[in-house]
Specification:
Helices cover 67% and strands 0% of the residues. By secondary structure, the protein is mainly alpha-helical.
Length: 192
């Protein structure tokens, strides 16, 4: 509970950062989601999460607050397959000059589901450190931030700009996978 209280207070301080987010769950919903995620964690993961710095907790909160799609069933692997499907929808839309398909797919990619238990249980204990998790913010900005820009370009029928934004999205996905992808993509052994 202490973790949730601290992170909720910090969340208010990071409101300016989140002003550009594409989804805004209510504060009560976010608090309930975070409590549920913490309750699902095995004690060793919960202890590591509670030991993270305030800055790391704020960054994680800001990322979670950008999403309004949380799953009670989907693992990270399943979420990543949905993200891949949305990415392919962007490519297909660009190739067929379907600006609506591109914009819709890009917005879904940017607001992908958060898997059951949150993101952290799938990253492995070795990655639950301030140094490793500090990378998430940049990956998130590169992938989801550029997906939002891509959707806006498609809304304006600027398919050349939309196509140009595929490269940084792809690079962000690959870079994140290089750091965090491992055996935890399926069912996590860090959830109860």
């Amino acid at each position: 509970m202490k973790f949730i209280t601290i992170t909720m207070a910090l969340f208010f301080g990071s409101f300016i950062f989140m002003a550009n987010s594409h989804a805004e769950p209510s504060m009560d919903n976010l608090k309930a989601i975070l409590q549920k995620q913490m309750d699902m964690m095995k004690p060793e993961l919960k202890k590591k999460v509670q030991g993270l710095s305030t800055d790391t907790k704020m960054a994680i909160m800001a990322i979670l607050a950008m999403h309004n799609r949380y799953s009670d069933k989907a693992t990270l692997r399943q979420v990543m397959l949905e993200v891949l499907q949305d990415y392919q929808g962007i490519v297909m839309g660009i190739m067929t000059n379907s600006s609506e398909m591109v914009a819709d797919s890009a917005r879904r990619l940017a607001n992908h589901r958060i898997p059951v238990g949150g993101l952290l249980p799938y990253m492995g204990m070795e990655n639950i450190t301030d140094e490793r998790l500090a990378l998430l913010e940049g990956f998130n900005d590169t992938v989801e931030g550029n997906a939002i820009k891509l959707a806006k370009a498609a809304d304006g029928d600027d398919m050349a700009q939309a196509a140009a934004l595929l490269a940084p999205i792809t690079s962000g996905c690959v870079a994140c996978h290089d750091v965090f992808r491992g055996k935890q993509l399926g069912a996590s052994d860090l959830l109860k």
